[in-house]
Amino acid sequence: MYGSEAWIITNKFKKKLEAVEIWFLRRMLKIPWTAKKTNERVLQEAQSKRSLLDKIRKRQATFFGHIMRQEKLENLIITGMMTGRRCRGRQREKLTDGMAKWFGMGSVVAMLQKTKMRQEWRRLIANAMKQGT
Fold this sequence. Notes:
One of its GO terms (molecular function) is endonuclease activity. By secondary structure, this protein is mainly alpha-helical. It has helices spanning about 10-30, 40-45, 50-70, 75-80, 95-105, 110-115, 120-130.
């Protein structure tokens, strides 16, 4: 999970992360691959309260809030305010877009304004974690 704060979580990456999590759990519980156990059953046996994806999302949100409260180079890079041109082709998904989608906010600007108030940002993270989106 080292460096997971800067990962962009797309649907394809999310599926791979969930698959590797189940694979890890099966290895830790010593369930052979020939055993006919569903993923839900494996999760029940592991009694994992939060998934790997939830932990990564929480780390991303806290790091994102920390960076947005500072007025430094990292803030400019994440918000995309750097000078220069983008590469040709389809635009890549940005960290800010993924965070806004996860929080269920319509615009990135509203989310960036919420990061300035630390207590409100923490409350927003806690609500998103409870909803499990």
